[in-house]
Amino acid sequence: MEKELKSKGLLIVLSGPSGAGKGTVCASLRKCLPELVYSVSATTRQPREGERDGVNYFFQTKEEFERMIHQGELLEWARFVDNYYGTPRGFVEEQLHNGKDVLLEIEVQGAKQVKERFPQGVFIFLLPPSMKELRNRLKERGTETDEVLWERLQAAREELAQIHNYDYVVVNDQVDAACDRIRSILMAEHLKRERLFQDQPDWLEGL
């Protein structure tokens, strides 16, 4: 039986400032790429309206989260605006081993940790069309006080300073267009020579 030439699963890291539309873009990607595995992050922040535990996030107490840190159960973790965020590592490693593409929606601090452990990952930074639009999106949420809004805008400027750590930049001017750009990135990454042949170096000998 001929061996199919295919690349292993991709670890895709999507970051961007709060209000860039990461959650909306990820939800759209899951619809158009049903085979894509979405890694659910753990967090200590309060759920927003419509969010469900185990679907959008694993909502945990500060004590529960700190136990996971100490026991090495997180691929990455970060503290952002007085809340913890992190990625349970066991699930991610299992999916990659099984050849699945895994999408992580995480903050820039966490992305830096992941890149140290998985430099072969695909790192994408999602941008809003402008800082003015970012501010408008945050205000329209109606969930942040003026103080928290100011903190998130300051954090956004700090996150933008880390954009050089990413492989790709995608502007989220329209959700469908942003998703199309990300799909093109993933297609190209799967076709890279080093990904195709790294685990099947003898494949060409059968031609």
TrEMBL record:
EC number: 2.7.4.8
Domain annotation Guanylate kinase-like: ranges: 9-187
Entry keyword annotation includes Kinase: yes
One Pfam family named in its UniProt record: Guanylate_kin
Reactions this protein catalyses: GMP + ATP = GDP + ADP
Molecular-function GO term, any one: ATP binding
Cellular localisation: Cytoplasm
Residues at which ATP binds: G16, P17, S18, G19, A20, G21, K22, G23
Main location: cytoplasm
Protein keywords: ATP-binding, Cytoplasm, Kinase, Nucleotide-binding, Transferase
InterPro entries found in the cross-reference section: GK/Ca_channel_bsu, Guanylate_kin-like_dom, Guanylate_kinase, P-loop_NTPase
GO cellular component, one term: cytosol
Keyword Cytoplasm: yes
Domain of life of the organism encoding this protein: Bacteria
Protein role: Essential for recycling GMP and indirectly, cGMP.
Family per record: Belongs to the guanylate kinase family.
Protein name: Guanylate kinase
Species annotation: Desmospora activa DSM 45169
Name of the gene encoding the protein in the UniProt record: gmk
